[in-house]
Design brief:
Strand order of the largest sheet: 5-8-7-6-10
Structural class: alpha+beta
Strand content: 25-35%
CATH class of the largest domain: Alpha Beta
CATH topology of the largest domain: Signal recognition particle alu RNA binding heterodimer, srp9/1
Largest sheet: 5 strands, mixed
Bound molecules: fe (ii) ion
Number of helices: 4
Helix content: 25-40%
CATH architecture of the largest domain: 2-Layer Sandwich
């Protein structure tokens, strides 16, 4: 059966301490609180990093159960629009002394992973212009300039026979998906 295309919009995360998590996401991570209230007797709030794109990208719901090291979601990723923005997010996360802050290159994306105050793993990332066969996970040095990071990416992955512009990968994969 053939289906139309769709986009991912939001994730809803259960939390142990709803007010504390709502404050953390708004004050430390800079999310906009679009709405907050109760649904079926449970606290829920709706958060976005770009109201022009989505009313909520993330919602937090009270009522998390189980131990904090329980593995359900590996991580949740939020796209930023440049390496400059990624670098400033990295500094901000370090200033907030969050756990497990890790700058990583995937060749096709540059990422910073970290944990929120309830041990959920999160990611900020920006797009690189290229498709590199995944998975690739290597340390990223954010003290380098944008040019140095891009040059290092081409040096490291450019000889890979599948290396191409992401716009090419998208166009050919969309054609295959459509047929
Ligand atoms: Fe990711």
């Amino acid at each position: 059966m053939k289906h139309g295309k769709a986009t991912i919009s939001h994730v809803v995360l259960y939390c142990y301490d709803f007010p504390k998590m709502r404050d953390f996401y708004t004050s430390v991570l800079g999310f906009h609180l679009s709405d907050s209230g109760q649904a079926r007797g449970n606290d829920i709030c709706f958060l976005t990093l770009n109201p022009e794109v989505d009313h909520h990208m993330l919602a937090l719901a009270a009522g998390r159960t189980g131990p904090p090291d329980c593995r359900v979601i590996n991580h949740i990723a939020f796209r930023v629009d440049s390496l400059g923005e990624l670098r400033s997010r990295y500094k901000q996360l370090k200033a907030a002394e969050l756990k497990d802050i890790e700058p990583i290159t995937h060749g096709s994306w540059f990422s910073v992973y970290y944990r929120d105050i309830e041990n959920n793993r999160l990611e900020f990332f920006c797009d690189a212009p290229w498709y590199v066969r995944q998975p690739i996970v290597k340390p990223l040095d954010l003290s380098l300039s944008d040019d140095e990071i891009l040059r290092a990416t081409v040096e490291e992955f450019g000889k890979n026979p599948e290396f191409k512009l992401m716009t090419e990968w998208k166009a050919e994969t969309a054609r295959a998906f459509d047929s």
